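Q: A reviewer asked whether we had any structural model of the full assembly, not just the individual parts. We don't, so I'm hoping you can provide one. Inputs are below.
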Amino acid sequence: MTILNWLRGLFILVMVAIVLYPVLWVVSLAFSGGQSLALVSVPEGASFFEALRALLPLPQQWSLANFEGLLTEQPFGRWLLNSLIIAAATTIVGVLLACSAAYALSRFRFPGRERGLMLLLVSQMFPATLMLIPLYVIIVEWLQLGNTWLGLIAVYSITALPFCVWMLKGYFDSLPVDIEEAALMEGASPVAIFWRIALPLAKPAIAVTALFSFLTAWNEFILASIFMDEEALYTVPVGLRFFVSDFSAQWGYFAAGSVLVSLPVVILFLGLQRFLVSGLSAGAVKG
Amino acid sequence: MPDLRKYLQIAALWLLGASALLAGPASAEEIRLWHAYRGEEKAALENLLERFNATVGHNSGHTVIPLAIPFDSYADKLSAALPRGRGPDLFIFAHDRIGGWALSGNTIAAVDDFASAAILERFPQPLRDAMSFEGKLYGLPFNFKSVALIYNRDLVPEPPATAADMLALAKRHTDQARGHFGLAFEYTEPFYHGALLNAGGGAFSADGELQVDSSGAVGALHTLREWLATGALPSEPTSALVSGLFNQGRAAMVINGPWMLSEIDPTIDYGVAPLPLLDNGEPLSPWAAVEGLFLSPASKHPQAAWALVEFLTSDEAALEMATTGKQLPANSAAFSFPEVQQNPVAMAFRKQLDTAQPIPNLAEMTLLWTPLRTALQRTVKGTATPEEAARELQAGVQQDIDTLRAQQQALTNQQNTQAAPLWPWLLIPAGLIAFLLTGTRRRRIAAGLQEHRTAASFVGPAAIGMLVLVFFPLAYGLLLSFTDTTMFNEHTPLSSRWAGLDNYVAILSDWRIWNESGVRFDNFYWTLGITIAWTLVNLALTVLLGLGLALALNKPFRGRNLVRVLLILPWAIPNYITALIWKGLFHPQFGAINQFVVLLGGDPVAWFDTVTASFFTGVITNVWLGFPFMMLVILGGLQTIPSDLYEAARMEGASRWQQFRRITLPMLRPTLLPAVVMSVIWTFNMFNVIYLVSDGAPAGANDILITKAFRIGFEKYQYAYASAYSTIVLLLLLAYAIWQTRVTRMTEAAK
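A: Here is a predicted structure for the entire assembly that you could use as a starting point for your response.
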């Protein structure tokens, strides 16, 4: 028993170390004030512990220069705000669409239902790079939504849909139908049942899909930079890529930006952690 | 579909409830300029534009609106916008795309009518030539860049005059045990190999024929091998490694361009000199990249845009670019201003230009980069002799060139496009409808819609969104795979490009997996095998790790919430940087992983040299990125298992292992399955990790189908072929998904 507990603790410790090691490289690069990815070299004749110290990613000196540069050289705050608005709107639109579609796929029997579910999977199977030009044609030329937040929000919320619908549909499947049937007997409309009964019960799964939609919009780079024609409308991932050019890259700025960009996501994780665990479980029960 | 469009617009607006989110359209008197500058160069450009707006622009009633675009998406943005008349009036881009753009049409405008002889006098002849293609001038040169020798003055007081001196000096400053090297540069990058290659006659002959197997080109490979044999150069050189070594005083000399200067540590006293002479007295002749100013053929204000081009290449502007922007202006006058003449660095790069050669701007050049990189890696690693590598390079690239030329030829011969079958167009929606409706009686469709009105209203918005923004582009991609579309005929009507199943036949019937020198890594079936192995290994490892961690985390302990958040971090940080950090960790000489291995008494591993080791660099990175998702899914699954099941089992005396086998695993099945299906699909198409970490090393052996499709599409311009590749990926995954659903249903039915 105790041996097992020790092993468990050791396993967790080792995994945390493996996860943290590259993350620490990013953090130390961000706070190093320098720009080049650090090198590791153990000095000759070093003792075991000196060698170990050399392998720990700690910067030579701590500096906030990269963060200062990042926030002053470019309108980073503005881009952060754009990203927050787009990601938040994507989350709302995406979750609304996914909830209603998933509810119908779970509760109603209609032609094309099974194949619809399969088509959702199919949509994940084709590489996004080849859909760039047609998407440009649709969003910018046909819908005239180029250079608007709306265009990006539309694309992102739809891109996140397949995963969200699958997750939520599974969750609705696992919820007992008794309450809804009783409500139906008492004359409640399907829409009212969906809003008043099913949605509140599905909160945990909604938290997961919300997080997924948020991340989809939060990290997307290529479409954001192709659709937007004004620097003031760029999102954070676009701003970050400025530090990587054809011949060289300012990895210090990039790392500092990555740390900043990860913070909202980590905070969101912290808030949703409780929901997240039970949400994923129930959502995946039947799939 | 005007009605649908309107409906969508209204629906989208309603959803957001704010028309204020729409940005206003551009006004008519704006000149739009796109560029990829940042930092000092951007500041200089913006100063100049301000000056222009206040003077020339003010007088003619034009305002320049600049837009900076990240380099990584710049080319994509241009090729999406320009052919559709939506791009800028004017843009700044490297000159080596001119050939491809000129041949494909609708992207850049010839400017012979605008450019007067007096204006052209501003530039040295090679830079003027760089902007010309097939006798036409396509823009003016703005700035140029080439590599030169950058040396640490504390270690190297005087730059070497000859290559022999350089190597002797480098050897003296090399101490591999301490991680010191005399000379560092990215010798496996084609751009840096240019210095040797051009000294041996260049990649293309004067009349544009490929000659990478000429005696000069083979000699360049031999010279590179001789340089490496001195041991004075580090292995696996990347730009981060080169600048890192130089900044730590561990590289006495580097061959690099002006872009490195801003990254040099202020404590390093450096100098710049032109590259030395080879032993035969010929100069090393690096490639120069010229940033040109290009006009869009769709510009509504070409006159005003040209006025801006003339302004930006004026002497006054050149001085500003040289001083504030720290650039090397194409206008020679820049280098006669005293401010610039007193700058030895700028003058050294200017002197290097005399022996540098602009990168050939032929469309064929783009086909050469990746194969040349492979040839360089093979030569350097010794898996091929210079002769073999050069022969294979010549044969492979020549074949791609012939394919493109044949098509160009066909395009020019085609007088009237033949009437093409219309049915392929109809096939897509028909197939989609058939797919949706088989299994139901047709007569019931109308009644069905009525009957399922509630369901339709619930699914409708999502379905319409998916149809317009996912399935339409997907159908376009599928359609493309039945054509022979390349960069050159993209603008011709689709019917004239119809090629039926040719692409599929070409991919699937190529059974030549082996040839005399081993496995042909660019064969479809090899890549398919690697992709399947990649998916299976990743899936197995993420599920195992996720399961182990979920079980370990399932029981409460102090700090569990914190551990859970820490373990989720790989998901939260942009994977672009973490993947590159992993690539750094795998570096054979300076990576932490090999240092750990040595510390524990092992031998360093050459991670990117063998198929297996390189395969695992990708796998380790991807598992690191992917296990948090699996862990969360399983952790959640564990919580749905009622604890009384375990209690009952314990009462009956079941061991822990039996409980795990009999209760945990079967109860987890329904949780895991959807996650596994999604995971298989995502891993199969995991582009970033492969591209950023191993980049298919060695020699493309570890490319998966999606990265291969990307290379064919965007490095060889064969869009249709890439599309067919992707379609095959889709069909394989579809088959898998159907099989998985069947199996699940059967096992469920069996219970």
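A: Points you may want to mention in the reply: The longest strand of chain B covers residues 287-295. The domain at 148-285+363-384 of chain B is CATH 3.40.190.10 (D-Maltodextrin-Binding Protein; domain 2).
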